[in-house]
Amino acid sequence: MTKTHFxxxxxxxxxxxxxxxxxxxxFGMGYDIALEQAWQEMKGISPYVVASKSGAEYDKxxxxxxxxxxTFIIHFPEVGIEELGVATPPAQWxxxxxxxxxxxxxxIPVADExxxxxxxxxxxxxxxxxxxxxxxxxxxxxxxxxxxxTKAGLALGGTPMPRTGDAAFxxxxxxxxxxxxxxxxxxxxxxxxxxxxxxxxxxxYLHTEDLSLVGxxxxxxxxxxxxxxxxxxxxxx
Length: 237
Hints:
By secondary structure, the protein is α+β, with helices and mostly antiparallel strands. The protein has two domains: 26-104, no CATH class; 114-225, TATA-Binding Protein, CATH 3.30.310. The protein has six helices and nine strands. The strands form two sheets. It has a five-stranded antiparallel beta sheet with strand order 5-9-8-7-6, with helices on one face. The longest helix is centred in the last third of the chain and has 18 residues, at 208-225. The radius of gyration is 18 Å and the shape is globular. The model is unreliable at 1-26 (pLDDT under 50).
């Protein structure tokens, strides 16, 4: 097994320059348009190939795709997404994310190497938003309370990661995208900090902008698992 490496994501980059290579049908154009285009792209897929590459299950016109501790059914070739055991439809941003995962999956093995968000391709474009929406709220919610963080990580179904920070958990965001959340307890004048890390191969399954949503969702879910829970809305409406 490849040795796991950890790197910090706690420096903000101010540049907002746009890398044309990363321009794609994403969230900047609005969820409804992004969702429509994703469904159009789905028309050209081979479902069993996509299932093999993504780790999703496909049978009788349905993909079964887990996302953290939730499970979604993507109907294909019919158009529709539902969550198992939930009557209300998923938010549009989440539907887009699920389809993007299926469409982009390359079947590359998990790298087993952790990297910070800022080390993902083109992350300088989205890092400020990622810090503001994922990392900063998480740090404010838990402060120095490593015990509450530990309880929240377990409640969300995380697997404890020994010898990493003061508390750390591994989560499976998608079948081929593990993410980690690590709590470093502060000392004296050094404040506590929390980081969210991604597998080094994550960008072969989702664009870097989409991965910011994965991290923001994890942050929000952990805050909701805190006792008492933090009133944090789902990311991006």
